[in-house]
Amino acid sequence: MRVDAALQKGMVVIVAAVVVVGVCTFSLEKMLATYAVGIVGIAGILLPDWEFFHQDFPQWFAFMRARRATAAAGRSPASLRFRLYPLSSALITLIYGFGLFQWWMFVSS
């Protein structure tokens, strides 16, 4: 249910951003670009299997059954969602930073 609530809140934020961009720029192309960037951004945060990515980097390439691994480690799946790993955090920051920069350059031009 938390993912559904986060998706609904994200969609409301995207709609608000699209309206603001539309009112400020009067451009349908920029509104559509803002919507597309927002949808891709939400999909990149909410859809990945975070239990799989919240392990050491060399283990990303090995097969893993998420439920068995979390039960063996004694951790609940909810606690894995909020653990920070430097490599995955840096990679996500780099990708989203570049995407937001390109979006801003397009909208502000």
From TrEMBL:
The chain crosses the membrane at residues 12-28, 34-53, 84-106. It is a multi-pass membrane protein. GO terms for biological process: anther wall tapetum development; signal peptide processing. It is found in: Endoplasmic reticulum membrane. Its main location: endoplasmic reticulum. GO terms for cellular component: signal peptidase complex. It comes from the Eukaryota. The keyword NADP does not apply. The keyword Transmembrane helix applies. Pfam families: SPC12. Keywords: Endoplasmic reticulum, Membrane, Transmembrane, Transmembrane helix. Belongs to the SPCS1 family. This is Signal peptidase complex-like protein DTM1.
